[in-house]
Amino acid sequence: METDLRLESSLWIGNKRYRAVLTGWHLKWTEADKKNGDKKTVSVPVAEVVGVENGRVEILPQKSVEDTDKDFTVFYIKRSRSRSTYGLLWSLGRTQFSCPSRVLRDQWTNHLRTALKTHSPLRPHRLLVFINPFGGKKKGREIYHSLVAPLFELAGISSHVIVTERANQARDHLLKKDLTGFDGVVCVGGDGMFSEVLHGLIGRTQQEAGLCETDPAVTLQPCPLHIGIIPAGSTDCVCYATVGVIDPVSSALHIIIGDSQPLDVCSVHHASTLVRYSVSLVGYGFYGDVLAESEKHRWMGPLRYDYSGTVVYLSNRSYAGIVQYLPADPLLSSPKDKTRCLSGCNVCSRSTERLFPHTSDSGSLYSSHFSQYSNDSEGEWVSVEGRFRCVSITCMSSSCARSPLGLSPSAHLADGTGDLILVWDTHPLSFLKFLYRHTSTQDQFDLPFVEVHRVKAVRFSLPDGREEEVHEGIGELNRAIEEREYVDTVSRNGSQQQLAQSVVERETMNEHKTVASILCGLCCKKTPAVSVWNCDGEILPFTEIFCRIHGQLVRLYARGIEDGAAMQNCSQESDKNKSRCITYK
Ligand SMILES: Nc1ncnc2c1ncn2[C@@H]1O[C@H](COP(=O)(O)OP(=O)(O)OP(=O)(O)O)[C@@H](O)[C@H]1O
Ligand SMILES: CCCCCCCCCCCCC/C=C/[C@@H](O)[C@H](CO)NC(=O)CCCCC
Ligand SMILES: [Ca+2]
Predict the structure, then answer these.
(1) Cis bond leading into 61, ω under 30°?
(2) Where does the DAGKc domain start and stop, copy by copy (predicted)?
(3) What does the pLDDT look like over 313-327, one tens digit per residue?
């Protein structure tokens, strides 16, 4: 394979001569006419070549083509360090080569295009794109048309674009419409938009597999279509944790070269109905109250979380609850092992073996998925009860702009487990220390009132099952009315007159109850007995829930966070004497 694709010749970049070599896996060009010492070599893996065009071509910011017959342009992935994040920024590298003859030029473009074909089965050719025009700073359409569409066109990708007119349009489309011919789905928006596509694809895949999502014990079928995220939201936490940067061009390039990053998904059930799926955070207490409070201030945009975070922090609330969890195998990994889930993570690749052991007949690739949840390997449930500041379950680190290392810095994207973080009730200043450590690299788990467990499933319930009570206040009121009614019943044997009296009183009390419940709901002075669940930025309508992690249920066009540090000792344009360049994958 490699031999017949080999091509070597002199090529010119501007007025400098280079020695260029194409093998099956790399395109390299080295400055000729220079002493060995300071030869500049650029080496690009063929897997990272985005496109080859005849002539001298520009793509971004505007497309321009100078069609000559001795020139050709190669577009490829160029990495650079980003100031604010761990991940590496990807941009479109472009080199315009000149040949001595048209024949040689055609030879180069044909060889390069043939080499690209060896990678094309992994690359998408047709994508379904949903744009949320209202997410984040309302720039979704502009971002797609000015930055992403030109790259898709260069890479020969055709896309069907839908600008959504209402919430849940993307989810409904994926549940109902014909999806044949699409290699993947792209959402241009934030976490909420991603969540819509996630729910649509998971629901559709189970429909087509004849599986029932509402059964908490069902083993869900992994989704065949990949999901691409073009970040255009407020938190963009999923994009941040899977790509490492919030940048539309980087995300578009990961989609174009067909990167594939499996992702764990947490299903949330109440009784025996499916409530929602989560990939980032299922949070009760602080994170739930912050989200509930922020819903009243949506007009603030992203700032609503900072304002609400402060208000909720100052309200100093804690909640009683019973948490039961099913620990994952502690020998595989632990939330405190200081590992980081990065591109090529071996904890995740090892769990791929565990989740999808290579069965003999590859046709039933996913049938082995059932083995993962066979009850005998379930293990022992652990139960804890008490008052908590917050209870969080996160399938991934949930790193985002607010918290560079995330809620659980050593969580893994695709290891089939989630991390359960229990923050017991504690002094307000200690809780502030816990929160503050999220904004730096200090260990937020190294506090006496914090415990974290790697789990496969979690159940949350209220002590003595007070599921329906919304606020303590109402509870007391209810009790008063019940007692009153009790008193009434007792007095019922009294005179008719008394009975009539008590009926009138009860009516009044009921009115009070309604009024009080409204007041209490609006701005209850007393701390409410229950909080709400924040599920990837959505508030759940239930308090008692059952969560379960489904390993690698979906795939993203990403490769995990590339370790920027590895980039240190070499750049794409390698420096003197360091011709070797780090290639990922
Ligand atoms: N055309 C639309 N009109 C109104 N709402 C929409 C529309 N399209 C999508 N939505 C809903 O808007 C919500 C927010 O969108 P999105 O997540 O893209 O932005 P965001 O909330 O600002 O970002 P993040 O979720 O990262 O904080 C989503 O839950 C989505 O369901
Ligand atoms: C004194 C300094 C204190 C600073 C507070 C530090 C704590 C930051 C942790 C942030 C973790 C966010 C997890 C991401 C959740 C997203 O799926 C979700 C949807 O976009 N965002 C929120 O619910 C938004 C929820 C935002 C909560 C703050
Ligand atoms: Ca995980």
Answers:
(1) yes
(2) 122-272
(3) 999 999 999 999 999
Domain shared by 382 and 436, yes or no? yes
Domain with 242, as residue range(s), is 126-259
Structure tokens given for 1: 């394979």
pLDDT tens digits for range 431-483? 999 999 999 989 999 999 999 999 999 999 999 856 554 444 445 555 555 55
Q: What is the pLDDT of residues 361-375, one digit of tens each?
A: 444 444 444 444 444
What is the pLDDT confidence band of residue 526, given thresholds at 50, 70 and 90?
Answer: low
Claim to verify: residue 29 and residue 55 sit in the same structural domain = yes
Give the number of domains in the chain.
3
Which pLDDT does position 563 carry in this prediction? 83
Question: Is there a domain that residue 363 lies in?
Answer: yes
The CA 1 to ligand 2 mean position distance, Å, reads: 50
Domain boundary among 92, 119, 146: 119
Q: Is residue 578 part of a domain?
A: no
- Do 316 and 460 sit in the same domain of this protein? yes
CA–CA distances in Å: residue 490 to residues 476, 482, 507? 21, 12, 18
- Based on the fold, state whether residues 147 and 167 are members of the same structural domain: yes
Of 104, 119, 134, the one marking the end of a domain is 119
- Residues within 6 Å of ligand 1 by CB: 132-136, 164-168, 189-193, 196, 233-236, 537
Asked whether residue 319 falls in the same domain as residue 233, the answer is no
Of 175, 193, 538, 539, the residue with max ligand 1 atoms within 8 A of its CB, to mutate for a pocket test, comes to 193
CATH number, position 201: 3.40.50.10330
- pLDDT higher than threshold 50 for residue 229: yes
Task: Kindly state the helix (H) or strand (E) to which residue 565 belongs, with its residue range.
Answer: helix 564-567
* C-alpha 398 – ligand 1 centre gap (Å): 19
User: Are both 381 and 479 inside the same structural domain?
Assistant: yes
Residue with CA at minimum distance from ligand 2 atom 5: 435
Report d(CA 125, CA 407) in Å as an integer: 36
Is residue 172 classed exposed, middle or buried when 0-12, 13-18 and 19+ CB atoms within 10 A define those classes? middle
Ranking 56-60, 64-68, 334-338, 572-576 by mean pLDDT, the lowest is 572-576
340: nearest Cα among 564, 554, 535 = 564
pLDDT of residue 335: 96
- Compute the distance between CA of residue 82 and CA of residue 247 in angstroms, rounded to an integer: 10
- With a 6 Å cutoff on the Cβ, whether 290 touches ligand 2 is yes
Residue 173 confidence (pLDDT) above 90:
yes
Amino acid found at 44: V
Q: Which residue in the list 191, 247, 264, 289 is annotated as catalytic?
A: 191
pLDDT in tens, 9-26: 999 999 999 999 999 889
